Amino acid sequence: MAIKQYKPTTNARRGMTSQDNDKLVKSKPVRALTKNLKQSRGRNNLGRITTRHKGGGSRRQYRQISMSLPDGFRGEVVQIEYDPNRSARIARVKSEQGIYHYIIAANGMQSGQVIHAGNESPLDNGNRMALSKIPLGSTIHAIELIPGKGAQLVRSAGTNAQLVARDEKNAQVRLPSGEVRLINVECNATIGSIGNEQHQNVSIGKAGRNRHKGIRPSVRGVVMNAVDHPHGGGDGGRHRMAKAPRTPWGQKTLGLKTRHNKSTNKYIVRSRHVGKRR
Asked: What Cα–Cα distance (Å) separates residue 177 from each residue in 117, 155, 269?
């Protein structure tokens, strides 16, 4: 998807870019595959803030995406659509039985393309099958971690993973972070990379666009009082970091390991931190 430039008619327009969605079909989503999305504003069921800087935003409907297609599935891509709830584009697929599905659109997917799912599927872009049937070195996305549970890895715009090795039980997959992970060969994945690769190159341009997305302003800790943030306080001079950066609750934010799921460490062949400066 191309990037659209704007003329600097105002200060907000200067440097602002957006995605060119002229090729997307402007139509309402499938009603049976949508549901109302209640705004939580970053609160939990007790009304307490659990995620800061969230609130407001445009109203939107949630599209129910099929993260796992049944074995032997065959359908035709009707159109590529915009989804306000994710960075990737979605494809409306009509099965041979006349049932509509939403799937994550692969790069290069077009209207009229036939999509297959199952181990007997051809090795074409957008088809879904088990890792045991995909050739080594292939680019894949929408990867399962548990057979039959549905895609959990590599679902964002422009991302892809690579199948680097395989034995009788597990396959080694290089994820976008650089981590190499063992995944059961019976888990399904989709061939190709995810479309809308220009998503990360969009310049927001003004604060109002973030407010439309439900993102509220964030205040720096160094301009707060000492009682409100570990970085706060001082005489109003230069705000040098006298200690490591911390969260408002005193937790270190740079270099501190926050992953505690030791039960799955055995599946990590190569950490994403190897070769990087800490």
From this structure: 27, 13, 13
